[in-house]
Write a structure and sequence with these properties.
Length: 410
């Protein structure tokens, strides 16, 4: 009997989550191919991954809505989820809709609070929030007879909180929970703690601090559960981590690297909040600086909200570099991509790889997932090609161990 794996999406009515659910259904129904999924390439061939057809979707959201409605709105605005495709996967979207529950709001910025349902704006005690999330996850697993549930954070970008004692250790956090002290604890930490403490892997596709805190590292080790993040790498930063090593390898001095990003979706609207914007810009800039390793380089990232662009994000990068004999040269590149169509296949990849890691008894952070993130936890390497080497080496190791196990059982 095939394993059944739940994929619990925090931000279930968002564009990325909607594309994840609709895209998976379209693959299973053979309405589309697997372009964009790294787990469907020869590099990862032969791994005992959960099939796309065994994935069951649910999630949390703070807004009123439905995945069916979100798919229509997304399709009408962006043209990716066509009327024909939505009609063909309508039953799958309705099935996922039945598994969406109200999310939690802890220290959320005003831009996020404005989107939330009135009921969720009322203050909830911290232990009650954690218990509610865990009850939702366990009920989802039981109702659908799931072998595992992978929790993926796709919620709006949070402000980076001040260092709180509650995030430094498991004991400190439990004391804060007992007294319902939420100072310095964002929603992402509540979701992450609830998931890992309940025995479910947690993947952070946002710039949130959750997975990288000492608290969650200690908890994931104690519970034997994987957690990984941070901030999915889908667009301009992906190009930077491919292109920047070229300048280093050829000993060309990058004097300036300016990046302008424009996006018009809900994530762009949330990034008008200064704290949320700072979290996002930090991750985008850090990847480049780690690769170049030159304190003399002037580097800056701007992100502007342009409502008319909707999900089609745009980026313009200007690179001013110096070569032999002091010759000053320039490179410019333009990037346009459908934000959610770039992210959705990676979410499916990460869910399948997290399930594999959990089955293998891996816990803590997962270095092999580095190429999927702007700031991968516990991986200093930012060169995309070298990050992919980590994933390919991991796949080779798993394939060899799987062969040995099969021979031993023959």
């Amino acid at each position: 009997m095939k394993r059944r794996v739940g994929v619990w999406l925090i931000g279930a009515y968002g564009n990325v989550a909607t594309c994840v659910v609709a895209g998976a259904a379209a693959i299973v129904r053979r309405l589309t191919g697997t372009t964009g999924l790294v787990t469907e390439t020869p590099l990862l061939g032969g791994l005992p991954l959960a099939g796309i057809d065994t994935l069951v979707f649910g999630g949390h959201d703070i807004r009123d809505g439905s995945i069916v409605r979100a798919a229509k709105e997304f399709g009408d605005r962006n043209g990716v989820l066509t009327t024909e495709l939505r009609r063909a996967v309508a039953a799958d979207l309705r099935r996922a809709d039945k598994e969406v529950r109200p999310g939690v709001l802890v220290n959320a910025p005003e831009s996020v609070l404005a989107m939330a349902t009135p009921a969720l704006r009322r203050r909830e005690r911290l232990p009650d929030s954690i218990a509610r999330v865990q009850a939702d996850l366990r009920a989802f697993a039981k109702r659908n007879r799931l072998d595992d549930v992978i929790v993926v954070n796709l919620s709006s970008t949070e402000s980076t909180p001040r260092i709180s004692p509650a995030l430094r250790s498991l004991d400190e956090f439990r004391r804060a929970v007992a007294k319902s002290r939420t100072t310095g604890i964002p929603s992402s930490v509540v979701y992450a703690f609830a998931a890992i403490d309940a025995g479910f892997p947690f993947i952070d596709f946002t710039p949130a601090v959750a997975a990288g805190t000492p608290l969650l590292r200690e908890l994931s080790a104690a519970c034997g559960v994987p957690c990984m993040g941070r901030d999915g790498k889908t667009g301009e930063t992906l190009v930077k981590t491919v292109l920047a090593p070229l300048f280093v390898a050829r000993n060309l001095h990058v004097m300036s690297w300016e990046g302008l990003n424009m996006l018009g979706n809900r994530d762009g609207a949330v990034l008008r909040d200064p704290g949320s914007l700072a979290s996002k810009v930090r991750d985008k800039d850090e990847a480049l600086r780690r690769i170049l390793g030159d304190e003399r380089t002037h580097s800056r990232v701007r992100i502007d909200y342009v409502p008319s662009l909707d999900d089609w994000k745009q980026a313009y990068d200007f690179i001013h570099f110096q070569g032999f004999l002091g010759a000053r040269m320039q490179m410019h590149f333009l990037w346009q991509g459908c934000d959610s169509a770039l992210a959705a296949p990676l979410v499916l990849d990460l869910a399948r790889l997290a399930d594999l890691a959990h089955r293998r008894g891996e816990s803590g952070t997962l270095p092999q997932m580095a190429p999927f993130f702007k700031t991968p936890l516990d991986v200093a390497e930012q060169d995309f090609a070298k990050q992919m080497d980590l994933l390919v080496s991991y796949a080779a190791m798993v394939r060899e161990e799987t062969k040995r196990a099969r021979r031993a059982g023959a």
